[in-house]
């Protein structure tokens, strides 16, 4: 009774494992070797169960042939599974090798049809075993031994990744082998425990080979979903070699062969792609049995980066457009007295050319000549002011790729650059800066200037005709914060949640694109910081920029 119950359990387990690739869409591509082995064990156990119930001599002979079909196929599938588990399923499946190993087993099994007496006689007790039976047992144990070697190679890798799967694999290998050996040596009488032990082994192999990541797949889907993804997906086994590569990864890396190549080399290629910007996200793949490999998602960010650059350019142009009126005012003042001074110098030069050599200059002409040095000095001063203003504009408009690299930057320096631009056309006390001693922040300096200038332009525009802007720099929660406050009308409570949305603006038509604050918010996040807005007491609004410090032990730099 217990023996039959054990056989039924084996049939249920091995039948499930044999049908598993067909029953689950997520398991498509799972190890066909394990399924074939489970099917052979199921055939053996089913025939053994039917033999327990007896029958006519012809029925028993048919069941014997059915039993030995599973018994002869089992060592071949055992070797197939061990071979693939040891070598890795991204490599050659070794089909020709397994086919050669199956030929002797097929020959021994065929003997049951054309010369059954050479295989054995089960009509007597104990059964008489013929030469082909003995030869088949020897061949079977040879296949099992080779399979044990391959499983040993797989177990060696598995021991480094999972403490639970390793004993499961070792037990699965040893249990049916020991049981069959004891039966063949006559220690267990007429009851062959091998079919029952094969059910236990198949279940343990599922844990030690499939769920541990040694089979033809890692326990993650790789069907139509991966094929349809626009993002590239690479999956490596425990040895670091790629076992799964979807079509998108081939397109992104422009490589025809990815499976079998080192994952690290492909990641380096993605990061250094000559004409694409590829975002690489790498993560370990784990199951209940431990880490089984690594996964990489490749996302093409080329168009997104181009769009971000266009957005940044649009925001820069918006800021420059706003500053045009102030620039015209700043330039007009020195240009006015330069024009006047040049007129005076022109009159002086004309009078000097008309004077006769050796004659004494007229008093008015002598006065003009005496003032010529002062006029020239004023003119030079005006020219220098214009040149300085132009250089600030060029510095703001010029884009150096090195400026977009994160590096330790004193925030106060970026603030001073932005303030010098925003003050154009206004009195020097319109923007007041209060800076405490703060450590450098880890950010791209050009992007910090862009953020601060956008905040200042927004504050000036919100302040009306009499702007009064306050900037405060202070250490804050492991980083540095910058507060930009104005005394305007503030932000409507309904609009406050949307101030950082792209193209959202409360300004009138033609007065703003709604890109400045949105870009500032994105740049703050890209540099590891955050940007927030709220209304201040007494009227006006405050924007708070927080950035992480470059190093915790960096000496503070005085503002």
Portion in helices: 55-70%
Strand arrangement within the widest β-sheet reads: 8-10-11-13-12
Give a quick account of the main beta sheet: strands, pairing sense, barrel closure: 5 strands, mixed
Low-confidence stretches: 25-30, 215-222, 552-559
SS content category: alpha+beta
Give the N-terminus to C-terminus distance in angstroms.
Answer: 89 Å
CATH class of the largest domain: Mainly Alpha
> What would you give as the CATH superfamily of the largest domain?
Rhodopsin 7-helix transmembrane proteins
Mean pLDDT: 75
Order of helices and strands: HHHHEEHHHHEEHHEEHHEHEEHEEHEE
Q: Please give the number of β-strands.
A: 13
Shape: rod-shaped
The CATH topology of the largest domain is given as Rhopdopsin 7-helix transmembrane proteins
- In terms of DSSP E residues, the strand content is 5-15%
The rounded Rg comes to: 42 Å
CATH architecture annotation of the largest domain: Up-down Bundle
What is the total domain count? Answer: 4
Count of helix runs:
15
Question: Could you characterize the architecture of this molecule?
Answer:
With 559 residues, the protein is an alpha+beta fold. It has four domains: 2-210, Rhodopsin 7-helix transmembrane proteins (Rhopdopsin 7-helix transmembrane proteins); 224-300, 2-Layer Sandwich (Beta-Lactamase); 304-398; 406-559, Heat Shock Protein 90. Helix content is 56%, strand content 13%. It is built from 15 helices and 13 strands. The chain has helices at 2-23, 32-52, 57-87, 95-114, 131-161, 165-184, 194-210, 224-228, 247-253, 263-271, 302-354, 363-397, 411-422, 445-462, 516-526; strands at 120-121, 128-129, 232-236, 242-245, 278-287, 290-300, 407-409, 431-435, 441-443, 469-476, 479-485, 530-535, 541-548. Strands 8-10-11-13-12 form a five-stranded mixed beta sheet. Strands 4-3-6-5 form a four-stranded antiparallel beta sheet. It has a two-stranded antiparallel ribbon with strand order 1-2. Strand 3 and strand 4 form a beta hairpin. Helix 2 (32-52) packs antiparallel against helix 7 and helix 6 (165-184) packs antiparallel against helix 7 (194-210). It is rod-shaped and about 150 Å long. The chain starts with a helix and ends in an 11-residue tail after the last strand. The relative contact order is 0.06.
């Amino acid at each position: 009774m217990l023996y039959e119950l054990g056989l039924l359990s084996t049939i249920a387990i091995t039948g499930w494992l044999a049908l598993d690739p067909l029953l689950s869409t997520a398991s498509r591509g799972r190890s066909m070797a394990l399924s074939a082995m489970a099917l052979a064990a199921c055939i053996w156990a089913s025939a053994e169960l039917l033999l327990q119930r007896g029958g006519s001599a012809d029925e028993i002979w048919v069941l014997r042939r059915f039993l030995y079909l599973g018994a002869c196929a089992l060592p071949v599938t055992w070797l197939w599974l061990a071979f693939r588990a040891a070598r890795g399923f991204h490599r050659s499946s070794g089909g020709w090798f397994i086919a050669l190993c199956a030929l002797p087993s097929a020959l021994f099994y065929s003997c049951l049809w054309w010369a059954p007496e050479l295989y054995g006689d089960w009509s007597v007790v104990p059964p008489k075993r013929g030469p082909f039976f003995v030869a088949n047992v020897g061949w079977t144990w040879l296949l099992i031994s080779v399979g044990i070697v391959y499983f040993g190679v797989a177990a060696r890798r598995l021991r480094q990744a999972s403490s639970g799967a390793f004993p499961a694999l070792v037990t699965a290998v040893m249990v049916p082998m020991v049981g069959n050996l004891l039966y063949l040596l006559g220690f267990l009488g007429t009851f062959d425990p091998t079919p029952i032990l094969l059910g236990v082994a198949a279940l343990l192999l599922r844990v030690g080979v499939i769920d541990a990541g040694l089979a033809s797949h890692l326990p993650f889907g790789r069907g139509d979903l991966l094929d349809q993804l626009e993002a590239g997906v690479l999956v490596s086994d425990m040895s670091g070699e790629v076992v799964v590569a979807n079509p998108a990864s081939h397109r992104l890396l422009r490589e025809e062969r990815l499976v079998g190549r080192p994952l690290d080399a492909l990641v380096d290629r993605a990061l250094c792609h000559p004409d694409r910007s590829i975002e690489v996200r790498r993560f370990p793949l784990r199951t209940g049995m431990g880490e089984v490999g690594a996964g990489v998602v490749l996302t093409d960010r080329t168009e997104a980066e181009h769009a971000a650059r266009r957005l940044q350019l649009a925001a820069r142009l918006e800021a420059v457009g706003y500053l045009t009126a102030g620039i015209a005012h700043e330039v007009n003042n020195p240009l006015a007295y330069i024009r006047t001074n040049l007129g005076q110098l022109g009159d002086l030069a004309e009078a000097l050319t008309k004077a006769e050599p050796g004659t004494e200059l007229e008093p008015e002409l002598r006065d003009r000549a005496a003032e010529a040095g002062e006029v020239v000095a004023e003119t030079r001063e005006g020219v220098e002011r214009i040149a300085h203003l132009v250089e600030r504009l060029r510095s703001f408009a010029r884009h150096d790729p090195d400026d977009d690299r994160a590096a330790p930057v004193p925030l106060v320096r970026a603030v001073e650059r932005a303030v010098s631009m925003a003050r154009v056309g206004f009195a020097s006390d319109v923007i007041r800066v209060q800076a405490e001693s703060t450590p450098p922040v880890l950010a791209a300096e050009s992007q910090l200037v862009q953020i601060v200038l956008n905040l200042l332009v927004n504050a000036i525009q919100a302040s009306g005709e009499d702007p009064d802007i306050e900037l405060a720099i202070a250490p804050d929660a492991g980083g540095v914060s910058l507060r930009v406050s104005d005394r305007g009308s503030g932000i409507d409570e309904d609009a406050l949640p949307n101030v950082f949305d792209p193209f959202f603006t409360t300004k009138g038509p033609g007065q703003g694109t709604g890109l400045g604050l949105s870009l500032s918010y994105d740049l703050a996040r890209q540099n590891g910081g955050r940007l927030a807005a709220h209304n201040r007491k007494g009227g006006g609004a405050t924007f708070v920029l927080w950035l992480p410090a470059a190093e915790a032990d960096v000496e503070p730099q005085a503002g």
